[in-house]
Amino acid sequence: MSNSQRALRLSAARAETCPRGPRFWVSAWWPVAAGIAIIALESTKYFGADRTSHPLRVLFEAIFGPIADPRWATIHHYIRKSGHFLGYGTLGLTWLRAWWMSLPRYRFLFDAELALAATALVASLDEWHQTFLPNRTGSPWDVLLDCCGAFSMQLIAFAYLRLRQPGRLHDRD
Fold it and tell me: What is the CA radius of gyration of the chain?
């Protein structure tokens, strides 16, 4: 039996054992689509550092008080990089959740690897897209930061499951 026939037979057997309708697939994958849509929106010229500095500074100064320009430049940089880390960390979790739901017989590590690869792909495409915008720059360092955010959040999810719900990990082995 060829690999394609074996895969077809496995997918047919899986479909018989756990029927899933459109509602299931939408619930599994809509967070991924929403996350990618948010990143696509933030990847426009309207969310470049030159456009986010003023609104973020107004908010920051409303909470913490006035700040000197040179210090603000550093803080603004760290706010934006934190956004990369947390935004792509969250996207990585949505990918992990979608793969976890879609591939119930696979181990956590396999789902996490798929989620990290998908997050890296989105981050790479996002940075590549930014190279075409006049007020944005694409950076491989941002892709690395994005992947670190996704990896960190997945590690936290694994630790949570391992400590609080170990049965959810063992049931999939």
Answer: 20
Could you give the CA distance from residue 104 to residue 1 in angstroms, rounded to a whole number?
A: 25
Residue pair 154/92 in contact by the 8 Å Cβ criterion:
yes
Cβ partners under 8 Å of residue 60, min gap 6: 67, 72, 75, 79
Q: What whole-number distance in Å separates Cα of residue 118 and Cα of residue 91?
A: 9
Q: Vertex 59, ends 55 and 60: CA angle to 5°?
A: 115
Query: How confident is the model over 35-73, as pLDDT tens digits?
Result: 999 999 999 888 888 889 999 999 999 999 999 999 999
Report how far residue 100's alpha carbon sits from residue 78's, in angstroms, rounded to the nearest whole number.
32
Helix (H) / strand (E) element for 48: namely none
What distances in angstroms separate CA 115 from CA 26, 97, 103, 149, one per listed residue? 17, 9, 12, 12
155 contact partners, CB below 8 Å, separation of at least 6? none
Domain ranges of the chain: 22-170
